[in-house]
Amino acid sequence: MRSPLRRLVDHYERRYPVDVDGPVIGCVGQDVPVELVTAAGALPVRLAGRPGLDVAEGEKYLGRGVDPATLSVLTRLLNGEYGRLDRLLVSRDCEGSLRLFYAVRELRRLEPGLGLPETHLVDVLHLPHWTTARYNQVRFAELVAVLERWTGTRLTAPKIASAIMLHDARRDLWRAVSALRRDLRLTGAQALAAFGAVLPVAEHNRLLRELLKSDLDVHRGRRVFFTGSSHDNPNVYWLLEEMGSVVVGEDHDWGDLLATRLVGEPTLAALVERYQYNGPTAARASIAARAAHTAQAAAESGAELVVSYVRRNDDAPPWDFPAQREALRPHGIPAVLFDRQEYGLIDLSEVFVG
Questions:
Q1: What confidence tens digit (pLDDT) does each residue in 172-215 have?
Q2: Looking at the domain assignment, is residue 2 inside a domain?
């Protein structure tokens, strides 16, 4: 019988297409409130790109000045690689996601034969003001109405509460997975799989609980913490860990950042607040907030080196690096920046310098 870890890795490596009976709603970006999708009886499936894919189709509509991960997602949508997606939710978590939303919306209007799913923009703002909270409350109410129309399911308070509790339970389990990794009982790539396996949340939670109870090997290597661009695939983790390192943490939204903040009270109002204050991501948070978070998270993970990995055309993370490096100095943790990297690749020639 396959181990819980092997099953999670299999689900992660075979994320698409998804074979389920109910509605499948694709999600782009970390600001999509997946709790509401679950409450509507649909499966939220976050869309990842594929390194090495020829993105000429995506470039035709978005140009070449976009994060290649976004180009890859659009190309996969156009190629039908995700399988059945009944609808698509795109969050405004970064410039690339926003441009993808506009492209898909216009392509549906101008070229309906492409078969792209109906899409809706989830516009969550992150400023710490009551006016921002009010704006987000209106946007969430709109999303509730959209999901009810799409699925034919009324999102009652009990359904929303149940979904919130399921997803908060998963965040708690992800935190426990992160603790295993800090103890070197998981590699960084394995942790990404535990975070990113595409499953109904209740089934995902069951597998995560089994993982936490299982016997796991202890790994050895230089303890590395990742900051910079997000990683929707394990390729860069594999490359680094093949060189004898172990990625013990990260501050991007396909990894530890997913579990940083719980909803807490199982209400729609608390859910809105959770997403307003979620983060801090490079695209939305201040440089000071990012630096403080990175330094604390790297120190707590026992990192011996912080690697700021930045993809080509991902413009926000390099602005954070000088402040992150300074914030890490009191902890005695060196940092190195790898800028303008190709999607899914890293130039390792100087990875241990700094």
A1: 999 999 999 999 999 999 999 999 999 999 999 999 999 999 99
A2: no
- DSSP state, 113? G
Same domain, 210 and 79: no
The CATH number given to whatever domain includes residue 225 is 3.40.50.11900
Residue 1: how many CA atoms within 13 Å on its side-chain side? 3
Cis preceding linkage at 280, omega within 30: yes
Q: Which of 139, 155, 171 is the last residue of a domain?
A: 155
Whether residues 135 and 261 share a domain: the answer is: no
Q: Please calculate the CA angle 190-54-245 and round it to the nearest 5 degrees.
A: 25
**Does residue 250 sit in the same domain as residue 328?**
yes
Please give the Cα distance from 104 to 25 (Å, whole number): 15
pLDDT digits 0-9 by tens, 33-43 = 999 999 999 99
Asked whether residue 110 falls in the same domain as residue 51, the answer is yes
Task: Return the closest-CA partner of residue 73 out of 32, 38, 28.
Answer: 28
**Residue 175 and residue 307 in one domain:** yes
Is residue 322 included in any domain, yes or no?
yes
Q: Apex CA 42: angle with CA 40 and CA 47, to 5°?
A: 125
Q: What are phi and psi of 214, to 5 degrees?
A: -90, 160
User: What is the span of the domain harbouring residue 179?
Assistant: 158-350
Residue 233 pLDDT > 80, yes or no?
yes
Q: Is residue 113 part of a domain?
A: yes
Angle at CA of residue 249, ends 244 and 254, nearest 5°? 115
What confidence score (pLDDT) does residue 352 get? 39
Q: Are 20 and 43 in contact (CB under 8 A)?
A: yes
List alpha helices for the chain, DSSP H: 4-13, 34-39, 56-62, 68-79, 95-110, 130-151, 157-182, 188-196, 201-213, 235-242, 268-276, 287-300, 317-328
